Amino acid sequence: MRPVWRQLVLVIALALALLQIHAQTAGIDPALLARANGGDAAAQVAVGECYAAGKGVTKDLTQAAAWYRKAAEKGDLGGELHLAALYRDGGKGFPRDMAQAAAWYRKAAEQGDADAQATLGVLYSFGQGVDRNDGEAYFWLSIAALAKGPNQDKYAANRQMVGTHLTVDEVDEIQERVNKWQTAHPQPAASK
């Protein structure tokens, strides 16, 4: 049997750890935190945003990334995009990692997010986080340019600039890939 003083030290250490956890999350809505801890991806992203902005808690990009990752690993688009942006930009106490950024942008791009597709295209065109590849850049910018929206013309213009580095045959092959993508990922009709 352990001496009483050892048990008392363990109890005190546990109490201090719980107080530290409570202090770290005290400014976050308890209901939101409960949903996040219960696995709700949208709540996990929201808690990550609290840490990223220092809203109700001390700004902590490592904690923000941990919450974003929980959502992103479930395939949540918001979690993937937030985590990608955090790795792209880095920040105080959080390292910039373009390979991680590109990997998370790819996951979001594959889910059909036009901004992620365009960003991935740009990353390929500059070789940031991925090997420079004008064909992949052209492909992802072409996919992004299919989506109706305020940035559609910008994505198409960026695609055309990248296209100047490709042969006609290469563009034709990529367009076949784009057509296959479009068939496999039909976009909903634009709202009027």
Description:
The chain has 192 residues and is mainly α. It has 2 domains: 67 residues; 86 residues, no CATH class. Helix 5 packs antiparallel against helix 6 and helix 8 packs across helix 10. The chain starts with a helix and ends in an 8-residue tail after the last helix.
Helix content: over 70%
Strand tally is 0
What is the strand content? under 5%
Which spans have pLDDT < 50 for at least 5 consecutive residues?
Answer: 15-23
- Number of discrete helical segments: 10
The count of domains is 2
Could you give the topology of this structure?
Layout: H1 4-25, H2 30-37, H3 41-53, H4 61-72, H5 77-89, H6 98-110, H7 114-126, H8 134-146, H9 152-163, H10 168-184
Helix pairs in contact: 2-3, 3-4, 4-5, 5-6, 6-7, 7-8, 7-9, 8-9, 8-10
Short description:
The chain is mainly α.
What keyword list fits this structure?
192 residues, mainly alpha, 2 domains, 71% helix, 0% strand, elongated
